[in-house]
Amino acid sequence: MPVVDVDPDELRYLTGHEEKDDDELRSDLFDLGLEFEGWTEDDEFQLEFAPDRLDRLSVEGVARSLRYHYGDDRGVYVPNTNTPEWTIEVEDQPPERPYVTGAVVRGLDMSGGALESLIQLQEKLHATMGRKRAKGAIGVHDLTMLKGEAATEGTAKSITYTSVDPDEATFVPLESDAEMTPREVIAEHQTGQAYGDLVADFDRVPAIYDSIGLFSFPPVINGRRTEVTEDSRDLFIEMTGSDQWTVDHMCNIVCYALEARGGKVERVTVEYADDAPGEYAGHTLDRPDFETRTKTVTLDRIESLLGVDLTAEDVVDYAERAGLSATPSDGEGGVSFEVEIPPYRVDVLHPQDIVDDIGRALGFNTLQPTYPDVSTVGGRHERSRLEDAARDTLVGLGFEDLLNFHMTNEAENFERMNVAPDDDCVGAADPVTIQEPYSEDYTILRTWALPSLMMVLENNTHRRYPQDLAEIGLAAGLDDSLNTGVAERRTVAGALARTDASYEDAKARLQAIAEAFDVDLVTPATTHPSFIDGRVAEVVMDDEVVGVLGEIHPKVLVEHDLELPVAAFEFRLDALE
To answer: Which of the ends of the chain has fewer CB neighbours closer than 10 A, N or C?
Structure first.
């Protein structure tokens, strides 16, 4: 979950509520779904929140939400923008990063915490929406240090987004005093080494020029010439990436944050060449795109989900207090609302999201729990009872119970475990893939749980041994014989990491589990690419092969930076029924 550092004094200043003490602020933030995680060394709040509200990645965004919560602001707010003076001319840009957007913000005071807040917002957007700069990268420049070319038409000044030979173009990057080529930046500069892989395979790398020369090498690093300082007053914002929608909405979030600091947003014209790669070839865009969206939700749905009776006036009021605007209308199906959504909200994808906002404005803590209007009372499912019993048994055997993500990626699930999807072994299966993954770390549903335990061991090498870890969780794989096309199952995995870990240790634990659930256990020898030959066996319970048991192969241990043996097992939970 994203964690943002927020200065409580800045919150009081930006909300206009100097009377709020720290305890009151924390309580109000909790009402918004922002959880207090502790204090920084600089006496700032550390706030954790759901990753969908990216507009709250800065103190300005958090303050905006609080002002709506307090009733100081209402409805959708769209900043006024000045006529564009600058143009971004797009030609011969890399096809891998064909899109760009931008804005100018004037009249800022970057002293105090404003610059730090902007840097944090930039970093957090890179890590989340920008997918570590792969999908979108932000460049912020001191406008006074740019010298624009005469634009081809319409405006007075222009810069160019293009591509260059990585061995020919030169500029002085941030945190450097020497001119370097893009290839030298990737090889020698600390930031270049961190993000150079994003463009290392490009024949020509992205570059942004003004009339003086190269000043930005996206998505890696900006030039020192246009570095933003506390003395900067006018900023030029450019964002490049692989998706126009993503960079446009990242730009909106940044512009709203700077506008809250007193800045005046000025539009920028983006002109794509006729032969430019991407879907906007030959198009001219007016950015930032502050156009609002609408969603329709019915009163009946709001009342049903929240469990309260509301009038149309109530819904309009709560929507406005959530930063939305709602217009009611009567129809055959009853009262419905056309809800307007502000440009900085990237999380509203479904009417359900609007109901959630209305519920927060109403106050979820004010809702009274009631029994559903059905003829039965819910109870624990038998599978849950079995899972709890198995978990208690594992803990009783000395295992530390874990709960890992069900989503992972192909490298962690297969490659680092020395397994291929088409192997005939536990863990090998055609994985369920995510069509549009939000992160490169989570692209598939895991096909087995043991890789998750190995990742935990890898991250815990600084902790004391022995480490005995276990997890009961979901595993899945494609199966055309099922209506859903996906076979899901609950799986039990355990790992013993210690200097004397052996096959016998893992089998002893497994035998104790089998006896606790009165199932017959047999462990005939087998082979498995994740385990050492001769030290691996099938797990057969009640005459059915349900898993694998053995000592982890040294190749897998080295891949996970482990320097001591690991014995492990994994089997289907339903084998204990």
So the answer is: N
The neighbouring-strand residues paired with 473 are 491
Pairing of strands 521-522, 531-541: antiparallel
Looking at residue 150, what is its pLDDT?
Answer: 63
Q: Which two tokens stand for residue 263?
A: 């800045």
Alpha-carbon gap, residue 5 to 116, rounded angstroms:
10
The CB density around residue 280, as the number of other CB atoms within 10 Å, is 18
Residue pair 530/454 in contact by the 8 Å Cβ criterion: no
| Average confidence (pLDDT) over 302-314 | 92
In this structure, what are the phi and psi dihedrals at residue 312, rounded to the nearest 5 degrees?
Answer: -60, -35
| SS3 state at 193 | helix
d(CA 81, CA 290): 9
Q: Considering just the CA atoms, what is the radius of gyration of the chain in Å? A: 28
List the strands of the sheet with 3-6, edge to edge.
3-6, 45-48, 35-39
Q: What is the pLDDT of residues 333-364, one digit of tens each?
A: 789 999 999 999 999 989 999 999 999 999 88
pLDDT of residue 187 exceeding 60, the answer is yes
Strands (E), 65-219: 81-90, 99-106, 136-142, 157-164, 205-209, 214-217
| Residue 94: predicted pLDDT | 94
Residue 551 phi/psi, 5° resolution?
A: -100, 130
SS3 444: strand
Q: CA-to-CA distance for 275 and 4, rounded, in angstroms? A: 42
Identify the three-state secondary structure at position 555.
helix
Distance CA 290, CA 252 (A): 7
Q: Which of 170, 188, 189, 167 is nearest to 180 (CA)?
A: 170
In this structure, the strands spanning 293-298 and 136-142 are: unpaired
**Using CB atoms within 10 A of its CB, is residue 275 exposed (0-12), middle (13-18) or buried (19+)?**
exposed
DSSP string, 123-148: HHHHHTTTTTTTSEEEEEEEGGG--P
- Contacts of 318-322 with CB under 8 Å at 24 or more apart are 318/357, 318/358, 318/361, 318/362, 319/354, 319/357, 319/358, 319/361, 320/74, 320/75, 321/68, 321/69, 321/71, 321/74, 321/361, 322/68, 322/357, 322/358, 322/360, 322/361
Task: Give the pair of three-digit tokens for residue 86.
Answer: 């600058």
Do 401 and 391 meet the contact criterion of CB atoms below 8 Å apart?
A: yes
- On average, the pLDDT of the chain sits at 92
Are 527 and 542 within 8 A, CB to CB? no
CB-count burial class (<10 Å; 0-12, 13-18, 19+) for 366: exposed
Side chain identity at residue 243, one-letter code:
D
- Hey, which residues does 142 pair with through a beta bridge? 235
Q: 225-250 burial string, b = 16+ CB within 10 Å, else e?
A: bbbbeeebebbbbbbbbbbbebbbbb
Structure token pair of residue 420: 């291929």
